[in-house]
């Protein structure tokens, strides 16, 4: 399984109403390649199946989204995640991989 496939597989573990970070995904894969995680998400050909919008920066800022930041915000809000000043409260919404 490729790095990109492993990243996408982890996306499926994040429950509705939770987010993760590029850093947490990389660390779960025993890597420090945070930017490679972002690159894998950007190349995701099936965003309907793999919820890339749930991945944010480790400081709570929203980061990028290939379909545009407005849509990312809309999807996060639909999941029940509150956004204030383009940031997510990680103490409340961060999903910790086991």
Describe it:
The protein is mainly α. Helices cover 40% and strands 8% of the residues. It has helices spanning 3-11, 22-28, 34-42, 69-78, 90-93, and strands at 20-21, 55-56, 83-84, 87-88. The strands form two sheets. Strands 1-2 form a two-stranded parallel ribbon. A hairpin with a 2-residue loop joins β3 (83-84) and β4 (87-88). The model has no long low-confidence stretch (mean pLDDT 93).
What's the story with the biggest beta sheet?
2 strands, parallel
Number of strands: 4
Instruction: Give the low-confidence spans.
Output: none
- Number of distinct helices: 5
Label the structural class: mainly alpha
Tell me the radius of gyration: 12 Å
SSE blueprint:
Blueprint: H1 3-11, E1 20-21, H2 22-28, H3 34-42, E2 55-56, H4 69-78, E3 83-84, E4 87-88, H5 90-93
Helix pairs in contact: 1-3, 2-3
Please summarize what this structure is.
This protein is mainly alpha-helical.
Task: Name some characteristics of this structure.
single chain, 98 residues, mainly alpha, two-stranded antiparallel sheet, 8% strand, globular
């Amino acid at each position: 399984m490729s790095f990109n496939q492993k990243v996408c597989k982890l996306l499926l573990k994040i429950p509705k109403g939770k987010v993760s970070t590029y850093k947490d995904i990389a660390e779960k894969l025993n890597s420090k390649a945070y930017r490679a995680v972002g690159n894998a998400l950007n190349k995701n050909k099936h965003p309907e199946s793999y919820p890339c919008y749930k991945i944010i920066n480790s400081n709570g800022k929203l980061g990028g989204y290939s379909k545009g930041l407005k849509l990312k915000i809309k999807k996060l809000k639909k999941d029940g995640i509150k956004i204030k000043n383009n940031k997510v409260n990680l103490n409340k919404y961060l999903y910790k991989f086991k």
